[in-house]
Design a protein that fits this description.
- The protein has 8 helices and 10 strands.
- The radius of gyration is 18 Å and the shape is globular.
- The strands form 3 sheets. A 5-stranded parallel beta sheet has the order 5-6-7-3-8, sandwiched between helices. A 3-stranded antiparallel beta sheet has the order 2-1-4, with helices on one face.
- The chain starts with a strand and ends in a 14-residue tail after the last strand.
- It is 32% helix and 21% strand.
- Keywords: ATP-binding, Cell inner membrane, Cell membrane, Membrane, Nucleotide-binding, Translocase, Transport.
- This is ABC transporter.
């Protein structure tokens, strides 16, 4: 099991409840979409799964271990096996695209190799190859500040794919792309997950994209009166999965399927 969460609760430093009573299991190689409105806890959940945030209560297992029972060094090694694609990738404006992509492996390299890569990219051909899959090979040596929002999102995706993670998390990864490009990019992400047996969890606003590309869809809501399963239909031939909504507070909550 890649991910297992039992009775998870998470509060922010100001005491705000972000997640409550969350039970969720995701097997290795599964492709799961999380849909729901802003403020429902999707980004918080992804940061929890990335071992960037500790739970306030409950049990969390990521890639077979509890991240918060590890030493900081071992937890950092665990994080090197996880890639998180941000909605707005945190890429330095003047950084060249080739450097941004190759930085995906900094967590797997030693300090010396990492510093050398910042001065001169060590694997230009590898970066070019993954960018070509996203139709960005011609942007290899451009600076990030020269790219559009959708292009920056694709650079962030290329960086994650170049990392070759076991767990791939994506937070609204196609929100700045037009519908055709968003569909193509999600298809590429899912195909990569299938080919490499990578677990993929992505949050999306567009329900139609979630149903078209992901065999399992989990719905979240900020408010619900009860836990009530409901059925969602995927694309023709796809299996159907229950989507649940759990009783929540206005500022918190998570549904599970």
């Amino acid at each position: 099991m890649t991910l297992r969460l039992s009775a998870i609760e998470l509060r922010h430093s100001d005491g705000t409840l972000a997640l409550r009573g969350l039970d969720l299991s995701i097997a290795r190689g599964e492709r799961v979409a999380i849909i729901g409105p802003s403020g429902a806890g999707k980004t918080t959940l992804l940061n929890l799964l990335a071992s960037a945030l500790p739970p306030s209560a409950g049990q969390l297992h990521v890639l077979g271990t509890d991240p918060w029972q590890l030493s900081s060094t071992r937890r950092q090694r665990l994080r090197s096996r996880i890639a998180l694609i941000h909605q707005a990738p945190p890429l330095p404006a003047r950084q060249r695209v080739v450097t941004a992509v190759s930085a995906g492996r900094l967590g797997q390299w030693g300090l010396g190799k990492s510093l050398l890569n910042l001065l001169h990219p060590l694997d230009i051909s590898g970066a070019r190859e993954v960018l070509a899959r996203l139709d960005l090979a011609d942007k290899l040596f451009e600076r990030c500040q020269q790219l559009s929002g959708g292009q920056l999102q694709r650079v962030g995706i290329a960086r994650a794919l170049y990392q070759q993670p076991e767990l791939l998390l994506a937070d609204e990864p196609v929100s700045a792309m037009d519908p055709r490009l968003a569909d193509h990019t999600l298809a590429l992400l899912c195909q990569h997950a299938i080919e490499h047996n990578v677990t993929l969890v992505a949050s999306l606003h567009a329900v139609e994209l979630a149903l078209a590309h992901f065999p399992r869809v989990i719905g979240v809501a900020r408010r619900a009166n009860s836990l009530r399963p409901r059925r969602q239909r995927g694309r023709p031939g796809a299996s159907r999965h229950a989507v649940c909504q759990r009783t929540t507070q206005p500022s918190a909550g998570f549904g599970c399927g």
